[in-house]
Amino acid sequence: MTDFRHSNAPLEMEVYGYDRVVKSHCRGCHGGCGVLVYVKDGRVEKVTGDPDCPINHGTMCSKGLAAPRIAYHPDRLTHPVRRVGPKASGKWERITWDEALDTVAERILAYKEKHGAESVVMGYGTGRENEAAIYRFANYLGSPNVLTAGHFCYGPRIATTVITCGSNPIADYANNPACIMAWGNNITISNPDEYKGECFSQALNAGAKLIVVDPRLTRPAARADIWLQLRPGTDTALALGMLNVIVEEELYDHEFVANHVHGWEEFKARVAEYPVARTAEITWVPEEKIRAAARLFATTKPGVVQWGVAIEQQVTCADNNRALLALMGITGNIDVPGGQMLFRQPPIRNVSQFGAHKALPPEQAAKRLGGDHFRLAGNFGIINPKYVWDAILTEEPYPVKLLFFISSNPLMTRANAREVHVALEKVEFMAVADFFITPTAELADIVLPAATWLEMDYIGDFWKRHGWLLPRRKVIQVGECRSDHEMLNDLAHRVGQGEHWWDDFEQGLDWILEPSGITFQEFLKTDRLRGDVTYRKHEERGFSTPTGKFELYSTKLEEWGYDPLPQFREPPMGPVSRPDLAADFPYILITGARQPGFFHTENRQVPVLRELHPDPEVEIHPDAAAREGISQGDWVVIESPRGAIRQRAKLSEGLDPRVVSAQHAWWFPEKRDPGHGWDESNVNILIDNDYSNCDPAMGATSVRTLLCRIRPETDADRDRLAGVQS
Ligand SMILES: Nc1nc2c(c(=O)[nH]1)N[C@H]1C(S)=C(S)[C@@H](COP(=O)(O)OP(=O)(O)OC[C@H]3O[C@@H](n4cnc5c(=O)[nH]c(N)nc54)[C@H](O)[C@@H]3O)O[C@H]1N2
Ligand SMILES: Nc1nc2c(c(=O)[nH]1)N[C@H]1C(S)=C(S)[C@@H](COP(=O)(O)OP(=O)(O)OC[C@H]3O[C@@H](n4cnc5c(=O)[nH]c(N)nc54)[C@H](O)[C@@H]3O)O[C@H]1N2
Ligand code: SF4
Ligand SMILES: [Mo]
Questions:
Q1: How far is the centre of ligand 1, averaged over its atoms, from the C-alpha of 281 (Å)?
Q2: Which residues have CB under 8 Å from 19's CB, separation 6+?
Q3: Is 647's C-beta closer than 6 angstroms to any atom of ligand 1?
Q4: Whose CA is nearest to atom 28 of ligand 2?
């Protein structure tokens, strides 16, 4: 048998029984894993991990392994369609790519002419490596409105790290961290962003100490030296309490603090407000555990904070991030081997340059929805989704007439789903590019068939902060599906921005790589590129912040009128802020913990993945379940002041009895009516999107801390919520 464990294995190889095996780069999530794609009779037979890849070392997750089943799924949209009945009638007719793109272009130009380019909103969801092209299109169009998940996912990490230390510090797993603090992140399931769960697990196998901060007993929590089971939404308080211990006990890095931080005295005064006793009271974490975790983290070097999205989906989103940055900073773990690295890319044109942000005229940028309301977000071009729904529904501050969603299913993934539904029903024109006709796509006028990663050439991990670039190689063509990049390149020519795009999108990839002195074809002949790795860059030239220091005290936040230091605020929908509501809705509801087989709303139509999670589940402690008369596997009704949904109870001792955890993003592709059960189990129906339920700097919607009640489902509930005839 061929041994692939050599480095520099050929990029395409012969293996008995297959036509060819192609090295490529998976993007079944945000991407990252190097893979080998096995082709037989022109079809992809299977995908395996590439042992030579530094991101995954040959491992893969269930979603990546199922890639061929997604690509060849019988429900896949393989040609453009136009809706022929009313919205959500499920009636579509096949059209050509030319007809589809001509129609979208004609609408874009007509609305731009009549209502201004700002009336056209481009949208995407989580990172799928098409973002920079979408921004490029919007910026050259003159629309400041690109609707993303960036207000409550990853955008806050970029924004808060840029203002604090210039870039996003990434755990340097290759150099064996001695202590890992996994904070609101379940990396062995979610494999998000830069490095994957495998690198994290390897570091633990090599002996790293582990602290886990999570209200649920996850697998890493079960393996941890210290598990801090905090009250959801109290992360800033916990971090400030740990910082208090580190400062009081002088466990911080004196040299780093003396030479490289800004605002030490003010910072010390702030953490003094969080003595351990007060922190324990706020967070539910016992005092001794807070002290032990602070000491372990501060004294075990090098150490990393492996942070996740849970801390961003709160009203203290920016404060949470900044408090964790302070933990990384004052312990001397920034930019050191095995610590928290500020990696650099190879010399290329980066996502900002490709996104052409400078092309947006300032008078158009000034029209960005939301304006200065959430200033940290606005500064990074990020808008809170409610502004878009409001502009459609009220035409204030101006009408939004056209939505173009490229890789997003906002009806399922944005808070207050019923409001999203009304807005999507009302908007005059909507185009969607997707693999399937999703509940969101059912409300569109035109749906365009998008290519999966097996069907495109690209520079993998272009947007990431670990410094690697990996070739993604097109292996197959399915129907008429096209990559989002190629589609936008064509559309751009049709709306008069052709001079800023290319005859063929591959020339755009050449343009990105040009500063490296190679073409895309030459890049395809390599395994990967990596930027130079240099440690302790701040010793030479400081940090890229206004003061040149690591800003514990943020001069930018101060300038924008926010508290320059992290502070804890009670979640507005929690038991402390709203004891009146808590009397009727006694449980703290957290939502969205990731499931291995799904990627948000994706993959529910793929049997091998659906078998892993056949039904939506809500985790509840056995004591709470007993009190509510709920048994394992019962369908239950979860209610908030906003509405009700149904999921199945999963009893778990790994939760506090005062907390329940519901899954997000559930729809039922097998339900053939055009709604596909979008409102049956969709947890975002329960979630408020009011601006007051958002972080004041970032606009992050709190989807992690809510109040709910839960009870067994009756037949009448089932008929009402699931539309089942009894
Ligand atoms: N309550 C609650 N809500 C949440 C969360 C939570 O934790 N709790 N998490 C939030 C987070 S962190 C995020 S990032 C958002 C995600 O929100 P979205 O990104 O809107 O989520 P998806 O459901 O994955 O939508 C992606 C759609 O794009 C399609 N797609 C996938 N790849 C491509 C591609 O390359 N091209 C095109 N054209 N289409 C593609 C998929 O088929 C799918 O229909 O959800 C958020 N919503
Ligand atoms: N399989 C799979 N992988 C994914 C995704 C997916 O949908 N499926 N989504 C992708 C996306 S877009 C993202 S953003 C990432 C997110 O990846 P992660 O950051 O790992 O996100 P989650 O699993 O949602 O949440 C992590 C943990 O936070 C805990 N948590 C909940 N509330 C709180 C709280 O108040 N404080 C703290 N400290 N912890 C809390 C949850 O119990 C959970 O175990 O995953 C990505 N990877
Ligand atoms: S973690 Fe992401 S990149 Fe890796 S195999 Fe899974 S889906 Fe693919
Ligand atoms: Mo996300």
A1: 36
A2: 39, 40, 41, 42
A3: no
A4: 184
Ligand 2 centroid, distance to 360 Cα (angstroms): 33
In terms of CATH architecture, what is 579-721? Beta Barrel (2.40)
Q: Give the count of beta carbons closer than 10 Å to the beta carbon of residue 28.
A: 25
What is the DSSP annotation of 15-63? -TTSSEEEEEE--SSS---EEEEEEETTEEEEEEE-TT-TTTTT---HH
Question: What mean pLDDT do residues 335-359 have?
Answer: 97
Which atom of ligand 1 lies at the shortest distance from residue 687's CA?
A: 1
Q: Which strands, in side-by-side order, build the sheet including 12-13?
A: 12-13, 20-25, 34-40, 43-49
**Averaged over 298-308, what is the pLDDT?**
98
Q: Domain 169-341, what fold? A: Dimethylsulfoxide Reductase; domain 2 (3.40.228)
DSSP secondary structure of 139-162: HHHT---EE-STTTSSHHHHHHHH
| Span 39-97, pLDDT tens digits | 999 999 999 999 999 999 999 999 999 999 999 999 999 999 999 999 999 999 999 99
Identity of the residue numbered 13 = M
Tell me how crowded residue 333 is: count the other CB atoms within 10 A of its CB: 27
- The residue length of the chain stands at 726
Query: What mean pLDDT do residues 532-556 have?
Result: 97
pLDDT digits (tens, 9 = 90+) for 621-653: 999 999 999 999 999 999 999 999 999 999 999
pLDDT band at residue 724 under the 50/70/90 scheme: low
- Domain ranges in the chain are 81-153+348-453+477-525, 169-341, 579-721
CATH code, 81-153+348-453+477-525 = 3.40.50.740
Cα–ligand 4 centroid distance for 30 (angstroms): 9
Would the pLDDT of 706 be above 80? Answer: yes
Query: In this structure, what DSSP letter does residue 714 have?
Result: P
Residue nearest ligand 1's atom 23 by CA: 601
Separation of CA 402 and ligand 1 centre (Å): 20
31 close to ligand 2 (CB < 6 Angstrom): no
Nearest listed ligand to the Cα of residue 665: 1
Q: What is the CA radius of gyration of the chain?
A: 25
pLDDT tens for 122-144 read 999 999 999 999 999 999 999 99
User: pTM of the predicted model, to two decimals?
Assistant: 0.97
